[in-house]
């Protein structure tokens, strides 16, 4: 593990964790790091927990093997049903983000790229939940991890996570598949109701990790998502998925639970924090309200900057800057990192937030290339 950005006087201190070996060994190492940070396994309904393990074994064997590694790190029987051995932290859903896919045909050098801003509260979990912070409690997003996994078999991956070591917010794999999550319907978002207990299938922050572990192309990702079970903790997310072959789509679920694949053909694809299947035309969007977090305005800006033009990597970065969260005391969010995925080079390049007035780190480049 290496310290790659920030310091004790900065908002973020970023670590890069590189793990290799079997998925069992990778899971054990992730759990040991989570324990160092204070994580412990949560009680689970035994019937549900047993079904969860069975689902992972059938549909996501990499995660199932990592859970066995977690059991070894904890000195537990991997077949016990009383404790959930994954969910190496929990993220309250509420991030307002922006993303823009530029296909190879619209790219100056022929590389397909996705740019994304990850916007989140610069606050403690207690403050986000409406209570006073605990003594010495750090802001939730102040200790992000970049995690590279190099398994003995399968796809190499590099992901960025805010505080969930077995999930991620951004990820790319050695096949050039890139995935990122965004809140899907900020205007109508509500806090979770009751306890946030694990269910069978993919939790919100597990879904990107599932795709970069198991899929190489957009078409594979579509089939994997259509065949999977999903759940969230009260606030729906949607996901932009792009591959090295120039294809991309947004995956989202409607308010009635229906599943939607949103594509725009061989052109740029923008996504912010409203449901695209309800507002598919970027030229015909409603006006923002006090609850929409400028989602429609941000998408208009990204669309106008990308329509009908050829964009360089710097043009994409400039577009992200145009919709970056303002350093304003009245704005509850900050852009905590800004990432450009290059699906041809299998890289993600990221700048991390250091605090108001301190701007951002230099751009750091991380690879997910073949071993």
UniProtKB/TrEMBL annotation:
Coiled coil: none annotated. Keywords: Hydrolase. InterPro entries: C45_proenzyme-like, Ntn_hydrolases_N, Peptidase_C45, Peptidase_C45_hydrolase. Residues 113-351 form the Peptidase C45 hydrolase domain. It holds the Pfam family AAT. GO terms for molecular function: hydrolase activity. This is Linear amide C-N hydrolase. It comes from Nonomuraea zeae.
